[in-house]
Structure formats: structure tokens, C-alpha cells
Amino acid sequence: MIDIRVYQQKTLEFPTVGICKLNRNVKESVLREIIGTALLLSERKYLTQDSMHKLLEYSEMSDERRLALAEETGKFLEECSFNGQNCTSHQLGYFFHLRYEMCITFNKKISRNKPLQISETGSGTGLIVKLKLSRVYSNANQTEGVKIIIQNPNEGEPDPKIRGIILSPNYETLISLKQTAHQRLPQPYEDKCLDYRTRGDPSIKSKWDCITACIQQQNILKCGCRDPTIMMMKNQKFCNMANETETSCLDDVEKAMSNNKSTCDCPEPCYSINYKEKISRSLLFTSKIAKRLHMNIRKESIPFQINSVRANIFYSSLERQIFEQRPKLDTVEFLSFLGNQLGLWLGLNLFVLFELLEKMTITINLLKGYFFPS
């Protein structure tokens, strides 16, 4: 049984926002839905020699070099403000992704730091970012721009492979949000949900982290090395993508897990927060420039400088809609129901017993009158 309730909040927790620059040299994400637990497929099929080199290089970098690379990445973040105030360095973070290389995060939950709260709604009250791409594109068929990932701060690192909104260059995109929460029931109920926050492994904060870790465990168990495209268990050695035996082993593990409908025990979380997004766009430049861009796209030979993306992310309402699973009968209701049934059963049996005694008394009196008349 599902209860749907709506609460008007004074403040709401602002989501974590991941920002990744699109890489035009790779295809978009692969996600296979199968019966049972969904299984995320590896990205090895799209791994080029150059991207493999970058991945290995990044994994061997010192913390200082990674910080320098993050600072270099941060240059494409031209403007950043939250609720009218400039973003601070502790609100921003960076992470590496095979397809998108370095990505930026805003409002990521780190250690005991609490995520930002917001008490106002409407455009300009949330996060506003302007991103400078600084690249020249001439092929109108290429996908360009950035990918925005919006998720609950408790879910760990944003993953552009699983979700995200693509923002087009030279457009301002307004993303209005409404918060929804889902509360599920653990065993013995049907969903058999799991509270990943209390599981004991700090690296697994969501269902997708659980699936990724499960796949990597199978790779290490069967192949003796880890898939370099899965950023889990970083202390284990990489499989050599130039070694046919090791790549075939990884493929066999993936195929076996897909055919067996996955061996991963990764149920839905007992409590999850999602965001309903409503998106609108408008041009950042004048109609004269837009006309020039249109001409260039039609000719497909004159390059045009595309260099800006602007995103405005905010709550349209401070309402929280909660979908709560409840048992048809809780403990108190069950005991009450059982008591009523027992009471009814005992009451009926006593009634029948007295009725029977009355009939027996009448019968005995009639027999006495017949055989022993006074």
C-alpha cells in the first residue's frame, strides 16, 4: 500500500550538481535493462588508445598534480553563484570520468559538511553557472555543450553515464525543480530495500555504486585484475587492454552476469530523493549572431565560435512529495484484528454452547414428563 503526502517545507536541501564538458569523440552512455537488477555495461568498447593513456596517467598522478589539473578544469567555469552569492571553493569539487575527463561538482557532501539549504523559490534563487567552452566547431552533426547531473547529495559522486541533461552551447537553460521522496520497506516485504548509509562501506552510497562494485569484484575474482573503465577498488591492478586474454576474460564476466540476470544483490534504497525537472531554453546572443550561426550550420564549412553555456537551477516550489510504502496491517492493527477475530469466535462458541445447554435442558424436562408423569 502506498501513501502519497505533500508537505510544505520552510527550507529544502539543495541537490548536488555535476557539470561535465561533452567529449565529441565518444558515444553517449550505455545502459542495459535486464530482468532483475539492472547491469551497467563496461565502457571498454569505446576505450581509445588516447583515452586509455589518459586514464592510466590520471590514476598514477600525485594529489598535487590532480589538484593542478582540477584548477585547469575550473577555468571553464566562468561564473558561479548560489542564491545571489559567489560560489566558494569549498562548495566546488572535481572528479575524473573516462568519457568526460575532469568534471566539476557543486554542493557535494563531504565528510560532516552539511549540504546547502534554500528557503526561496524562483529563477535566480538557486545555482547560476556560466561555462566557457572556448572551442571552434564546424560539424553541425556533433553533440556539443555540457552535461548537468542533478542528484541527492547523499548519493556520492555524480555519474553522467546514468543520468544527466545536455545543455546546448550559446543557450541559457532554466531548470526548475520539485523534490520527491520515496520510502520503501525492507524484508520481508516485496521491495526488500536496503539502507546503503548504514551498510558499513563508505564507498557504496547508492544502488549504482553497489552494482559497479559488484561488477568489479567479479572482474577481480575471475580475471585477477580490474576493469580500468570502472572507478572502483582503485588499489587493485588494471587489466591490460592490449592483452587479449585479459580483455576476453572481462568480456566473459560481463556476458555471464548479463545472461544470468546479474548476481548483484543491490536492491532499491529504503529512502531516496529525486527531482522532477522542468526545462526551458533561450538564446544567449542576439538575433544577428543567431542568423549567422544558422547560415554556418547550413553551409557546414564555415566554423563558428561556440563558447558559452549558462544554466540556472532553482526550486519552483518548497513542497516535498513523499511516496511512502506501508504494510496493509501494521503490528498494532494486526493484533487488534486478531483480537477481534478471536473475540468473535469465542463469542459465537459461547452462544452455541448456551443454546445447546438450553436445548438439552428442555429435552430432559420433556423426557422426564413423558416417562415419569406426576
TrEMBL record:
Lineage start: Eukaryota, Metazoa, Ecdysozoa, Arthropoda, Chelicerata
Primary localization: membrane
GO MF annotation list: ligand-gated sodium channel activity
Mode of membrane association: Multi-pass membrane protein
Origin species: Argiope bruennichi
Transport is among the record's keywords: yes
Recorded family membership: Belongs to the amiloride-sensitive sodium channel (TC 1.A.6) family.
Keywords: Ion channel, Ion transport, Membrane, Sodium, Sodium channel, Sodium transport, Transmembrane, Transmembrane helix, Transport
Protein name stated in the entry: Degenerin deg-1 like protein
Gene3D superfamilies xrefs: Acid-sensing ion channel domain, Acid-sensing ion channels like domains
PANTHER family: AMILORIDE-SENSITIVE SODIUM CHANNEL, AMILORIDE-SENSITIVE SODIUM CHANNEL-RELATED
GO cellular component: plasma membrane
InterPro entries according to UniProt: ENaC
Cellular localisation: Membrane
